[in-house]
Amino acid sequence: MTYPIITLKPHKEESLERFHPWVFSGAIAKAPEGIEEGDIVAVESHDHRLIGLGHYQIGSIAVRMLTFGEDAELGTDFYRQRLQQALRLRQSIFGNDKLQITNDKPETDQRKTENEAYRLVHGEGDFLPGLVVDVYGPTAVIQAHSPGMHFARMQIAQALVDLDADIRNVYYKSETTLPYKAHLDPVNAYLIGKYETDIAQENGLKFHVDWLKGQKTGFFVDQRDNRALLERYSKDRKVLNMFCYTGGFSFYAMRGGAQLVHSVDSSAKAISLTNANVELNFPGDPRHKAYAEDAFKFLDNIGKGEYDLIVLDPPAFAKHRTALKNALRGYQRLNARAIERIAPGGILFTFSCSQAVSKEQFRLAVFSAAAQTGRRVRILHQLTQPADHPVNIYHPEGEYLKGLVLYVE
């Protein structure tokens, strides 16, 4: 099939020949008149060698590459093939075709339970740049981060229900993820099927998923492994879960035998979701309390030693590199307050989900916070996103989640 051709400047094909999936606007020598946001284009070198095909958009990233070295028809069959490859990877991760997870638990507490929540497509990590698909039981939630994926949404939806993954409903939710300059109308709606249930299961724990109005696709599946790790540290501890959103870390801590768990979020709606999720798993349990308060103010007002396990999982402090300096200050300030107030022998789980912040920068911010308090701090674990959020080795920018588990003397 013939697509409009974008020609690169000399030597600008080098990163693409190493399979990096982005073409930056400054690398383009010639683009045909009349191409529009979301169009499929062929990208060629300055000497007219075909590099591959991708989605065009206006902005710093001008093309997101879908294929390399081949001229193909990018229709439903293409998405069906890529989604099938993504599903096979998840099957290999989770053990079998029912997507089951076996937790690394003591022999007295083995759990092998069906996992109803997982990421099926992680953008560049699954060779579908601009696309995220999270699955919650029978429902797949699509987010488009590029105009091209927005226009391909019905093809993707059809390919999803054709998979052998028991997906019956496909909900499209992209009003906050599409480039605003594209002037698109990303109406949130079911593309296929309808609402069935908002309850899914992760590692034997149930939770409500608000994909209609909640953040992202409704739940942060990227913290699954880290929540399971926190459960192992929770026995008999007093746990503070900051930026709790839907309370994932909170109900894992409760199953781990925490003495008490306090959940904090500035959003009253998030607190309502947290309380609902705790009630799903531990109805009437008096160990849990939730507070709709600003995180920094809450940390200022707690007594030193009041908690001996603290979780800091804030929203992205830097969505763009222009905000990096302020973001690093924010991470340092937040971690300093937690380290200062945590009880001796306390455990701190601290995270950054800002793609613009590198692992080294985040670790330096936490180091600076620890030095500021004067306390002795050791790193127990260095954390990242789970395997169903794979990082394309040619696109290291896909490694966005950073975490540290610290022991504070």
Would you give an account of this structure?
By secondary structure, the protein is α/β, with parallel strands linked by helices. 27% of the residues lie in helices and 27% in strands. It contains ten helices and 22 strands. The chain has helices at 14-17, 76-94, 147-151, 153-162, 224-233, 248-255, 268-281, 295-301, 324-341, 359-373; strands spanning 5-8, 22-24, 28-30, 40-44, 50-56, 61-68, 100-102, 112-114, 117-122, 131-136, 139-144, 169-172, 189-192, 199-202, 205-208, 238-242, 260-265, 288-292, 309-312, 346-352, 377-383, 402-408. The protein has a seven-stranded mixed β-sheet, sandwiched between helices. It has a six-stranded mixed β-sheet with strand order 2-6-5-4-1-3. A hairpin with a 2-residue loop joins β14 (199-202) and β15 (205-208). α2 (76-94) packs across α4, α5 packs parallel to α6 (248-255) and α9 (324-341) crosses α10. The protein is globular and about 65 Å long.
Summarize the structure.
A hairpin with an 8-residue loop joins β9 and β10 (131-136). The chain is 27% helix and 27% strand. It has helices at residues 14-17, 76-94, 147-151, 153-162, 224-233, 248-255, 268-281, 295-301, 324-341, 359-373, and strands at residues 5-8, 22-24, 28-30, 40-44, 50-56, 61-68, 100-102, 112-114, 117-122, 131-136, 139-144, 169-172, 189-192, 199-202, 205-208, 238-242, 260-265, 288-292, 309-312, 346-352, 377-383, 402-408.
